[in-house]
Structure of Methylmalonyl-CoA mutase:
Amino acid sequence: MVPIRILVAKPGMDEHDRGARILSYRFREAGMEVIYTGLKQSPAQIVAAVLQEDVDALGISILSGDSKKLLSEILSLLKEKDLFEDLLVFAGGIIDEKDLPALKEQGLAQAFPPGTDLNDVILFVDQHIKIDKE
């Protein structure tokens, strides 16, 4: 079976990447291939990486407080490139609950708040991608 390929991205000026690095490590432990963008990526850079790397999932880590603006821009660019058919998009970090309905309408599959058990994130990705890979 082909391993799940996942891109973990850090948009904006957020320099808090410990969680993204730990999650990347845990995804690898779970048998997934992980590409980590590093810090301070623009929405356009993230979408370009999704295209270039041909990933199954995009995990976006935001702790800067610009979550609605950054996520909306990323989701809009993904839609422009017609990437939602084969891409699971989820986010983690500081995301205002009142913004979630609009973000989910734009294509965000799930948002995980700080303190979420990493096993829950891995299980979520594994369950949603395996359905498509089988």
Q: What stands out?
A: The chain has a mean pLDDT of 89. The radius of gyration is 13 Å. The chain has one domain: 5-133. The beta strands are 5-9, 33-36, 57-62, 88-93, 110-112.
